[in-house]
Description:
By secondary structure, the chain is an all-alpha fold. The chain has two domains: 9-45, no CATH class; 55-88. The chain is built from four helices and no strands. The longest helix is centred in the C-terminal third of the chain and has 27 residues, at 59-85. The protein is elongated, with a radius of gyration of 28 Å. The chain starts with 8 loop residues before the first helix and ends with a helix. The mean pLDDT is 84.
Amino acid sequence: xxxxxxxxxxxxxxxxxxxAVDAMALKLVDALKTSDEFIEExxxxxxLFNVYLHTKQPLRAKLLKPFMNLLQNHWSAGNALRNSANxx
Length: 88
């Protein structure tokens, strides 16, 4: 309670959870903002890095990809024909 001297502990220590606007009214939070807003505010205080991970596709996956695409296209076309024939 050192940081929240005006907090009515009897009112808020009920085991309930609070919606953001209610938490603000009860002085449980200082401000309401989105995570994007918070991150944008904090950017100036930290060094930011972009990290990318590129994984090498196994040879088997490279070889099977065209065949799998062909099967998928064939399967999708077959389903479309069946659905149109059944009036779906």
